[in-house]
Design brief:
Shape: globular
Structural class: alpha/beta
CATH topology: Rossmann fold
Helix content: 40-55%
Distance between the termini: 87 Å
CATH architecture: 3-Layer(aba) Sandwich
Length: 317
């Protein structure tokens, strides 16, 4: 009898701990309007592109005939380019955007996140902003979108800057836990209402070469923008709809001058992928930053932006 009572106490205590954990991690969707006060301060604006209310920032000289469009990676936002924007806008018009499914832009009306949808979105964004040609710079997913746009709309892209870009079928040395959860159907549904903050922190530590650079505000940003209504569902849909390496045979069709930047400590898309891009893109250069991880543009914006600017300066000579 005592054993049964003890077992009941243990089960009851365990249930209470589980419930307490779920309550602590309870994080339902938040409307974009609730998040805009912190994450859409000036010079943010919202414009309609392909039927989506898109969050973007458009800075620098308005007479620049070859602006730079910055495209972020999975589960990120335009804020990841803050450091690059500060450096590059001295010489260039710099446009950065929350891609569909992420940031304050949020989901597409039809739930389609296939790669041709993203390349079409970039072309439509440029049309909306009256930009005929642009330099496209992208990290991870954003790099994939950048080179796919260069293939699909070659006349619209003058130059590419690929920062730890996706596109090849590859094996990650380590995948952020947030990405793992989003790819498990049963768990991804659960994660639409539950999101422990430590999941975000762990995922960020996974993609930084030096995790000591991760600040409370950085975690806040990724955490809160993940909660934007529809973003978690969109993330699961994007993973489900896209096959690794689906368009990699098209990379060799890129004709634009291309700078490939990579973090030597990238565990999500390993550095050997930099050489793959260099091999397949005839007019390309590679710069490796040995101590940086998957998001080198965010981890060390000064050094990586300087490399990008030097590349663009050489093209202008």
């Amino acid at each position: 009898m005592k054993t049964l009572k003890l077992a009941g106490v243990v089960l009851g205590a365990t249930a209470l701990l589980v419930i307490a954990g779920l309550i602590a991690a309870w994080a339902p969707d938040r409307p974009a309007e609730d998040l805009a006060g912190r994450w859409a301060t000036p010079p943010s604006q919202f414009v309609l592109v392909d039927g989506i209310k898109v969050h973007l920032r458009d800075e620098g000289p308005r007479d620049d005939q070859n602006p730079i469009v910055l495209l972020h990676g999975t589960s990120s936002s335009l804020h990841t380019w803050d450091g690059w924007a500060r450096v590059l806008q001295a010489k260039h018009r710099v446009i950065r955007v929350d891609l569909p499914g992420f940031g304050l832009t949020g989901p597409t009306p039809d739930g389609n996140y296939q790669m041709p949808v993203y390349s079409h979105f970039v072309a439509s964004l440029m049309d909306t902003l009256h930009v005929q040609r642009a330099v496209l710079a992208g990290n991870s997913l954003g790099g994939y979108v950048a080179w796919k746009t260069a293939v699909d709309y070659p006349d619209r892209v003058s130059t590419l800057i690929l920062v730890d870009a996706a596109g090849y079928a590859t094996t990650a040395a380590s995948v952020p836990i947030g990405f793992k959860l989003a790819q498990v159907p049963m768990l991804s549904g659960l994660m639409e209402n539950i999101l422990p903050r430590r999941v975000i922190e762990s995922s960020l530590r996974n993609v930084y070469g030096d995790p000591s650079k991760i600040t409370t505000e950085l975690i806040d940003r990724y955490y809160e923008l993940t909660l934007r209504a529809g973003n978690r569902k969109s993330l699961a849909a994007r993973f489900a709809q896209n096959k690794a390496g689906e368009f990699e045979a098209q990379i060799a069709r890129v004709q634009q001058p291309t700078l490939v930047i990579w973090g030597g400590l990238d565990r999500l898309i390993p550095p050997e992928n930099a050489e793959k891009f260099h091999h397949d893109i005839a007019n390309s250069r590679v710069v490796i930053f040995d101590k940086l991880g998957h998001v080198g543009h965010e981890e060390d914006p000064a050094s990586t932006a300087a490399a990008a600017q030097a590349f663009l300066d050489r093209l202008d000579r």
